[in-house]
Design a protein that fits this description.
Largest sheet of chain B: 8 strands, mixed
Oligomer: heterodimer
Radius of gyration of chain A: 22 Å
Mean pLDDT of chain A: 97
CATH class of one domain in chain B: Alpha Beta
Distance between the termini of chain B: 40 Å
Number of helices of chain B: 12
Structural class of chain B: alpha+beta
Shape of chain A: globular
Shape of chain B: globular
Distance between the termini of chain A: 57 Å
Number of helices of chain A: 8
Number of strands of chain B: 23
Helix content of chain B: 25-40%
CATH architecture of the largest domain in chain A: 3-Layer(bba) Sandwich
Structural class of chain A: alpha/beta
Largest sheet of chain A: 7 strands, mixed
Chain lengths: 411, 487
């Protein structure tokens, strides 16, 4: 059986950044496995710009951003396989891959999970109504338009104010479709403020908060939708129904980390992130399995995906060299205003960067980390939005023993 | 436009089973199907349960044909290459009244010829289905599940391989009798076909076609049921269907495992007269989850992957009481016509016995000569995912397209997609590919693979982008290209 120190599952932004960083740290017996015909992951279809401001201090399109990493992979001759799908990973890190070349098994010392995420679908949400053609998730519409050159419709209604949905509102408008409105069931947008400005406001596309689709109509192709206002519990308010005639419905209603391979390998997940539970080394609770990027928790910006994967490379390098990593007995607990943290546990022996999201909008809030009632770190924020990831640094000197850390929002 | 010995109106599971049974004889047979594939309506929109024949009145066609269909399902599934699992099923009860009801059900089932029925206690119930909620249960060991899509497609493909012609997008609009020639003229939008025999197996359209044949007066209502499909990971928590104790007319909301490891919740039952509305309202979804949770407490919204509904055609009398299957020849009203009315549940189980019965009825009017070339066997599309590693490796070595996984959730390869695109019935819709391969049926619902499948349909069959169809005639996917491509 082929042996590799590290097998990286997925050649998107996380997998590429991890591979390059591992190389720089001297871990070069690596294989990136990518199922598509080219590396780059979802960035391949993200032809809009705005990527790279944090990581490269310049604005790039998705393919340009990915290319920077692909160029490094190629310069360093880091091994990769395209058109190759991982079928399963055993709990003892044997990776089974399929390609036109055949079925192969690779024994890895460490497995890096960087499979990204998938879109939440109509069926997962249970959007009521008929089942015509013309209901697309935003990423599918984006792939059809940007990778396959196929126009998906003319009269469009968008459900969900996720970033890809807003970006598709602009893209469809620029290609001659009429986007009537974006409807968001929550009282606040789920995408980034800059996308509301640049993709909706600049094109006169209205965004209706606390509204949702309560029925999709059409026996063959979509003919329209019924829109209702919702109350504070997000239940439709009877009597507020309005009909919109359209031929296309675009859904931008959330992303779900794609952890099917992880689950089968026995990697425990966090029900809040639907990604693995990880420590500060990005090692999951299954030894030798590491995860970063959208497979771990859905990110707001790709720059943070790359930075996280580069951080992961530190831990993987240490694990490959030393065979083990320090224990991480200190758990991070969240109050009801904080959705989750990554990592979920730490060693207490090093400085760590804790990533988190709040559950609702806060103004003039302070994110506080406490241990046994004592404040060990805090961050003041003018505005904290669920759409934006929050990072907070934690110094090892501040950490007191192995007591759990409570993460809360005060305002 | 051609003369047939037999024209079958409706190519669902029953029409296709009839077509296949008749293709055992030297007959020129056509099937007129209004949809673009064989299982778009009742045949594809159900629980996929192979019933034991327990719940029907003794002596009824439903009871007799269901028991017969159940017994023959293994042999049929081997012949035709579709998945059938005799997994058994349980009806769970809580109180003395329900216990009594289950005792009556067993007695009824045994009278109908069903075997392997018994009451089991809580302990045995939990051995069979650890998560089921009930104080006791009735176990029906011969009940099972089938893949309703492949089952129907297999019957149709095998019929086609034995000479039956399928005509899709052929909704019948008129039928007339040319008495002097002893022929029927059957008109669809595409033309008129002449035939010696007509068979009405139109499912939801059975009342309309019966009227066209001159056999008037059947009152057919729709019973619409909604379903929720759960992620494949839930399948391990449900080794067999779990039902509540049934009432006289309705089986109750149950949970059913599918042959692919998903779980289906449903159906409710609502009388409808619109046989084309397949929408699922919010309150029904909520109700299904709530009811089913009372017998199987494993329903989480995070596991929802899709919902759907199906409509059963029920023949009812003037008091609204549901009647038996009607399978008849009425020479005084419509000579040389076999009229099937109200073929609802257990039609999926009973389809082949119904087909045999129809062939037998025609055989009473004319001598049917055996077709010596009849081949009962059909080879289905090999499912890469279901093979062991050795076979997988061999498949890729023989055909590298097996190494290209197109659908990630169900691990469907390009080789399988291509085989489905070139299917023997000439179906070329997205849903046609989905039903034949399971691609787009998984938890991402085609989010990853549908673009590739649409592209392959264009490339392999030369279909222009604007003519790619999701399921039905006007269910277009694209208005055209974003930019004109340079040659």
């Amino acid at each position: 059986m082929e042996k590799r120190e590290v097998v990286i599952i997925g050649g998107g932004p996380a997998g590429l950044a991890a591979a390059v960083e591992l190389y720089k740290k001297g871990i070069q017996d690596v294989l990136i496995v990518e199922r598509e015909k080219a590396m780059g992951g979802i960035l391949r279809q993200c032809i809009h710009d705005g990527f790279g401001l944090t990581r490269f201090k310049t604005t790039l399109s998705g393919p340009e951003y990915a290319q920077r990493f692909i160029d490094e992979v190629q310069t360093y001759r880091i091994p990769y396989r395209i058109d190759t799908t991982v079928l399963y990973v055993s709990s003892d890190k044997v990776v089974t891959i399929a390609s036109a070349k055949g079925l192969e098994k690779i024994q890895a010392k460490a497995v890096i999970l960087t499979m990204g995420c998938r879109e939440r679908t109509r069926g997962a949400l249970g959007i009521p109504g008929e089942r015509p053609a013309g209901v697309f998730t935003a990423g599918v519409a984006q792939a059809y338009m940007n990778l396959y050159n196929r126009m998906v419709g003319k009269e469009v209604v968008i459900l969900g104010s996720g970033d890809i949905g807003m970006i598709m509102a602009r893209r469809l408008t620029l290609e001659g479709a009429h986007v009537q409105a974006v409807f968001e069931i929550q009282p606040i947008p789920s995408g980034l403020p800059r996308n509301i400005e640049q993709c909706l406001n600049d094109y006169g596309i209205p965004l209706y908060l606390s509204h949702t689709i309560t029925a999709i109509h059409g026996k063959e192709r979509v003919t329209g939708v019924t829109i209702s206002e919702v109350d504070a519990q997000m239940k439709p308010i009877p009597g507020t129904e309005k009909e919109y005639a359209c031929d296309t419905v675009i859904l931008s209603v959330g992303l779900i980390p794609e952890n099917e391979l992880s689950i089968d390998a026995g990697v425990p997940l966090d029900t809040r992130t639907r990604g693995a539970v990880v420590d500060e080394f990005f090692q999951t609770e299954k030894e030798g399995f590491f995860a970063a990027g959208n497979v771990l928790h859905v990110h707001d910006l790709v720059d943070f995906v790359s930075l996280e994967a580069e951080k992961l490379a530190d831990g993987v390098a240490e694990y490959v060299r030393g065979g083990r990593l320090p224990e991480c007995p200190i758990e991070l607990k969240t109050d009801r205003n904080v959705n989750h943290t990554v990592p979920q546990k730490i060693s207490g022996q090093r400085d760590v960067n804790v990533t988190m999201r709040v559950n609702r909008k806060f103004e003039n809030a302070v994110i506080v980390l406490r241990q046994g009632g004592e404040v060990i770190a805090k961050k003041s924020m003018k505005k904290a939005l669920p759409a934006e990831m929050i990072q907070i640094g934690l110094k090892k000197e501040a950490i007191r023993g192995n007591q759990e850390i409570e993460v809360s929002v005060e305002w | 436009m051609g003369e047939f010995d037999v024209l079958i109106i409706g190519g669902g599971v029953v029409g296709s089973a009839i077509a296949r049974e008749l293709s055992r004889f030297k007959l020129k047979i056509g099937v007129l199907e209004k949809n673009l594939d064989v299982c778009y309506e009742t045949s594809g929109r159900n629980s996929g349960v192979v019933h034991g024949g327990i719940a029907y009145d003794t002596g009824s066609l439903k009871a007799k044909l269901c028991v017969e269909g159940n017994r023959g399902m293994e042999a049929l599934s081997r012949e035709l290459g579709f998945t059938f699992k005799r997994c058994g099923k349980v009806l769970v009860g809580k109180n003395a009244e329900e216990m009594e009801s289950l005792r009556r059900t067993i007695a009824q089932g045994e009278k109908n010829g069903a075997t392997g029925l018994r009451l089991i206690d809580k302990e045995e119930l939990h051995k069979l289905v650890p998560m089921a909620i009930g104080e006791f249960a009735m176990f029906s060991e011969n009940s099972g599940i089938v893949d309703p899509f492949i089952y129907t497609i297999a019957l149709a493909e095998n019929a086609a391989a034995n000479g039956v012609q399928y005509f899709f997008n052929h909704e019948v609009t008129a039928i007339s009798r040319e008495e002097e020639q002893n022929l029927w003229s059957v008109t669809a939008a595409q033309g008129t076909y002449q035939t010696r025999w007509v068979i009405n197996s139109a499912g939801l359209g059975c009342g309309v076609i019966s009227d066209m044949l001159g056999i008037k007066g059947y009152h057919v209502i729709g019973s619409k049921g909604d379903y929720i499909i759960l992620d494949r990971r839930t399948g391990e928590l449900l080794p067999m269907p779990v039902y509540p104790v049934p009432s006289n007319t309705y089986m109750g909301i149950h949970v059913t495992n599918t042959t692919d490891g998903n779980v289906i919740i449903g159906p409710n039952a609502e009388n409808v007269m619109d046989f084309t509305y397949y929408g699922v309202p919010q309150e029904n979804m909520d109700y299904l989850a709530k009811s089913a949770s009372e017998i199987w407490p494993c329903i989480k919204k995070a596991d929802y992957i899709r919902n759907y509904s199906g409509i059963l055609p029920k023949w009812v009398d003037e008091n609204g009481v549901i009647q038996d299957f009607k399978i008849e020849i009425r020479p005084e009203l419509a000579p040389n016509a076999v009229n099937l009315v109200g073929i609802e549940s257990p039609g999926l189980t009973a389809a082949v016995p119904i087909g045999r019965m129809v062939a037998g009825m025609i055989g009473e009017y004319e001598k049917l000569e055996e077709n010596p070339g009849f081949n009962p066997r059909r080879k289905g599309i090999i499912r890469f995912e279901e093979q062991n590693d050795e076979t997988k490796a061999r498949l890729i070595a023989e055909n590298p397209d097996y190494g290209e996984v197109i659908c990630r959730c169900e691990k469907v390869t390009k080789a399988e997609i291509l085989e489905a695109i070139h299917n023997p019935l000439g179906v070329h819709t997205m849903v046609g590919i989905k039903y034949r391969t399971r691609s787009m049926m998984g938890r991402c619902q085609g989010g990853y693979c549908q673009m590739r499948i649409a592209r392959l349909l264009e490339e392999e069959l030369g279909i222009p982008d604007t003519k790619i169809r999701y399921a039905r005639e006007n269910s277009w996917l694209f208005t055209g290209k974003v930019r004109e491509e340079e040659a």
